[in-house]
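hiii, so i know i said id send this last week but things got crazy w the move. better late than never?? heres the sequnce for the chain we talked about at the cafe, plus the structure i predicted for it. fair warning i was half asleep when i ran it
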Amino acid sequence: MARRQKVGSVVYISFGTVVELGSKELMALAEAIEFSGKPFLWSLKDKYKENLPEGFLERTKEKGMVVSWAPQRDILQHGSVGVFVTHGGYHSLQESILGAVPLIFRSFYADNHINAKIAEEVWGIGVRVEDRVITKTRMVKCLEMVFEQEKMKKMRQACDELKQVLIKADGPDSGAAKNLKVLSQLISG
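okay and structure toks below
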């Protein structure tokens, strides 16, 4: 995607280094992305590209890219990214908040489910795929929800507010910094 994309228009897809979508969900996600017509950047291990629909890469080469690795933090800081499709791991969630990018969650285990639920129901910065299973219809619905202009505006605003909380929590006078200092003193004797 060397060409410039409109602000908030790109779908970034990454499920991290551990999570792997099954072939049915991978195919459904590709079909939904192609159907949406949105520009996209998909970080997908090479060994899974064979599970994409036949001709997908050729048909979508003008709209998007599928790469084996991507610098996620940098991507989520780029203004053209409009939504992040993710498993909802803690670091992905944090990086998305810092980039003010709304999320679509397909959670898998552990903290993923909790992060996705809180992000959608409490913070209002994302939506969860129904029943935690990607189908073309469910993903298209999620994309339409997030890209609806007013909803996206509200989600980005909520991300900005959370970003300020994260920045403050990471500062030298934060509770976390003070707790680390106390822990260091306790360990040191």
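btw The radius of gyration is 18 Å. thought thatd interest u
miss u guys!!
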